[in-house]
Design goal:
Strand order of the largest sheet: 1-2-16-14-15-13-12-17-18-11-8-6
Distance between the termini: 26 Å
Strand content: 15-25%
Helix content: 10-25%
Oligomer: single chain
Length: 450
């Protein structure tokens, strides 16, 4: 469970625990006993095979390589099953001190005393921020105190010699967004040919895949590792994904599913992001054109991450959701803290805030149909809840929402994340960086077991 404490104000989450309880285990046969008579249990799609397949480099209908487990060899030796377990690098959650100290913050306040935080009516914004500040200050205090009592959070120890240095982050040499751009140059294919590619159910641990604009599904109960353009990525059990950009979402529509919860983390236009050229942004109108209504099931819960710009919040509530026939039902806040319970940024900082907003809504156009088709009633989504957690130091690595949302969707509901950068068991994920945080370099391989 990623939920450490659940109190009236909201939830205290353990993001790292959520990742590691996914149980990233790979099963493979031990070499060299197997390799003497049979090739290793991996699949490599070479250029000749690719020519016989769809233009996107994957079979049009199915995928069933010959990878039957080998019981033994001619010398009487058997193939021993090896289990390799991976855990997420814990130092990527090593947030022991605020990103901005109080002294630096006071200087910023003095030099920017006349600068407005957001566009729009200054008085209305001030009132709104005051209410949010009170909500976050009171609510997070209760959750943090409970975390300190239980030992999940701990007071800052002055001696931090071993953790004071900079952490070397893994370099993902495979630029996923560029691969999506490359796919656009290939010949167009019949949309109906783009079916879901289901990875084999056997003990195959490594699959070599070239770029494929189709849904990839790991339906097995253990993880798999795929190789994409020479880079290795871990796929959690029972997960699916589509690696593409907004211009190539048709395979997601063709998979024949609608979803009971859709989490959206749009790449909002932002001056600092434009300057850093970190990733491509989308305009509000481009986001508005996304086929969310076609993907949403009856009474679908829509959850959208919104940056701390009043302009974006107003757009979601007053324009985006109405265009999708979605009724706003709640606003939640993700509050980012250190391991000692301090906000990562001062709460009244004029620039960086220690929280982000989530706007939750229901697809009301289909609500009547939903109630006719099921006897299961889900409770209404509560408003003004907090999700408090120590953030990952990786940019835009959002906390998991699966456990905090499960009470507000029907049992067994289908889940989808748009603009995802990682995968979750039981979820479909889409985006042009959908495998980013699944890169094997973000994980540590533990000692193999038998």
């Amino acid at each position: 469970m990623s939920v450490v404490h659940h109190l009236p104000p909201g939830w205290l989450l353990d993001h790292l625990s959520f990742i590691n309880k996914v149980n990233y285990q790979l099963h493979r046969h031990q070499e060299p006993s197997c390799s003497k008579k049979k090739p290793t249990s991996s699949v490599y799609l070479d250029s000749r095979q690719m020519e016989a397949m769809s233009p996107f480099g994957a079979p049009a209908v199915g995928f069933a390589p010959d990878s039957t487990p080998v019981p033994g060899n001619e010398d009487g030796g058997g193939c021993e099953m090896i289990t390799q377990k991976y855990v997420f690098r814990p130092e990527l959650f090593n947030v022991t001190k605020p990103h901005i100290t109080s002294a630096v913050h006071k200087e910023c306040q003095q030099s920017n005393s006349h600068e407005n935080l957001v566009s729009g009516n200054k008085q209305e914004v001030s009132v709104s921020i005051g209410k949010i500040r009170e909500l976050i200050l009171d609510g997070s205090s209760q959750l943090i105190q409970e975390g300190l009592k239980s030992g999940f959070l701990y007071p800052l120890v002055e001696k931090q010699d071993g953790n004071s240095g900079r952490i070397a982050l893994p370099l993902d040499a495979c630029n996923l967004s560029e691969l999506c751009e490359m796919a656009k140059q290939w010949p167009a294919s019949n949309e109906m040919e783009l079916q879901t590619l289901r990875l084999p159910e056997d003990d195959m641990s490594v699959t070599e895949l070239d770029l494929s604009s189709q849904v990839i599904e790991n339906g097995s109960s253990f993880s798999k590792m795929i190789t994409l353009m020479g880079q290795k990525y871990l796929l959690p059990p029972r997960s699916s994904f589509l690696l593409s950009d907004i211009s190539c979402m048709q395979p997601l529509l063709n998979c024949g599913k609608t979803f009971d919860v859709i989490v959206i983390d749009p790449p909002w236009e932002n001056k600092s992001v434009k300057r850093s050229n970190r990733y491509s942004c989308l305009s509000p109108q481009q986001i508005k054109q996304m086929p969310v209504p076609k993907l949403a099931a009856a009474d679908c819960l829509i959850v959208t991450w919104v940056t701390n710009r009043q302009k974006h919040l107003c757009f979601v509530k007053e324009e985006l959701y109405p265009s999708w026939s979605v009724e706003v039902v709640a606003e939640w806040y993700w509050v980012k803290i250190t391991h000692s319970g301090e906000f990562v940024f001062p709460l009244d900082s004029p620039h960086k805030k220690p929280y982000e907003c989530l706007v939750l809504g229901r697809v009301r156009e289909k609500a009547a149909l939903a109630f006719r088709n099921t006897d299961t009633e889900v409770p209404p989504v509560p408003d003004q809840k907090l999700i408090v957690s120590v953030p990952c130091i990786l940019h835009s690595h959002k906390p998991p929402l699966a456990e905090v949302l499960k009470d507000y969707i029907k049992p067994g509901g289908q889940c989808l994340e748009l603009f995802a950068r990682n995968l979750q068991p039981g979820w479909m994920s889409w985006g042009n960086e959908v495998l980013k945080f699944q890169h094997v370099d973000y994980f540590i391989a533990l000692e193999s077991g038998r």
